[in-house]
Amino acid sequence: MIRGLIFDLDGVIVSTEKNHFLSWKKIASSLGVVFTEKENESLKGINRRDSLNIILELANIRLSEVKINHLLNKKNELYKYSLRNLNKLDILDGVEDLLLEAKNKNILLAIGSSSKNASFILEKLKLTNYFNVIIDGTMVTKHKPSPEVFEKAANFMNLSPKECIVFEDSASGVSAAKEGGFKVIGVGNENIKLIADVYLNSMKEFNLSDYESVV
Ligand code: BG6
Ligand code: MG
Predict the structure, then answer these.
(1) How sure is the predictor about 213, in pLDDT bands with cuts at 50, 70 and 90?
(2) How close is the Cα of 127 to the center of ligand 1, in Å?
(3) Residue 214 has pLDDT above 70, yes or no
(4) How confident is the model at residue 215, as a pLDDT?
(5) Residue with the nearest Cα to atom 7 of ligand 1?
């Protein structure tokens, strides 16, 4: 039986992946690096520091810790500024209906996100109260593609990976879920079509009743 749903945040609940992309693009261009959607694909799901490391590798440059911290802060400022008007209308189609349906069926709900802004975003979307647990980038020692974030969420809910479904839009997140033994549904990013167990263009295509008797 599926007893828990674990949601990635950026790109699954809300389309903030594009805000991450545009903020990193500004940082990259300040370093003289060409940064398109193609390069951005490898950053999806990856935590802030590891993302900057990927950009620095693309640029083939090394920076001091001070400069690195400055860029990380700058990126987060740009990102948060871009979210200043974020609100309930930005929740992706099908998400809140699914949260409601699952709650009514006593299925447990979790967030498993690499973001340190997860609680801030969920508050803006007024979704916080749906979740039994929110595991974010401040609570793990190993980041996606490590399964730690999903394992912590499942442990908190007292469920085994086999009793959960993970929803992800990133290759790193799909790998993390698979590594942890979770069933993973890829959503909204065609690049993960072949690696996810099931792929959906949008959360609104997900039908909970298809999974209720899955053992
Ligand atoms: C993930 C995003 O959810 O969070 C990444 O997919 C992002 O693009 C990462 O870099 C870290 O987010 P934040 O908000 O802590 O910078
Ligand atoms: Mg994501």
Answers:
(1) low
(2) 18
(3) no
(4) 41
(5) 47
For residue 115, the CA-to-ligand 1 centroid distance in Å is 4
- CATH tag, 17-82: 1.10.150.240
Residue with tokens 């090394």: 62
Report the candidate in 124, 125, 185, 114 with the shortest Cα–Cα distance to residue 152: 114
Closest CA to 30 of 1, 85, 70, 86: 70
Token readout for 189 is 């990013």
CATH 3.40.630.40 for the 4-15+88-214 domain, yes or no: no
- The DSSP symbol for 192 reads G
Active site residues: 8, 10
**CA separation for the pair 1, 204 (Å, rounded):** 21
Structure tokens at 27: 């940082």
What is the rounded distance in angstroms from the CA atom of residue 31 to the CA atom of residue 47?
20
Name all contacts of 116-121 with Cβ < 8 Å and 24+ positions apart.
Answer: 116/48, 117/76, 117/79, 117/80, 117/83, 118/9, 120/80, 121/9, 121/10, 121/14, 121/16, 121/83, 121/86
Domain edges within the chain: 4-15+88-214, 17-82
Q: Separation of 113 CA from ligand 2 center, angstroms?
A: 7
Q: pTM here?
A: 0.97
DSSP secondary-structure letter at 205?
G
Please name the amino acid found at residue 38: K
Whole-number pLDDT of residue 212: 80
115 lines ligand 1 (CB under 6 A): yes
CB distance 23 to ligand 1 below 6 Å: no
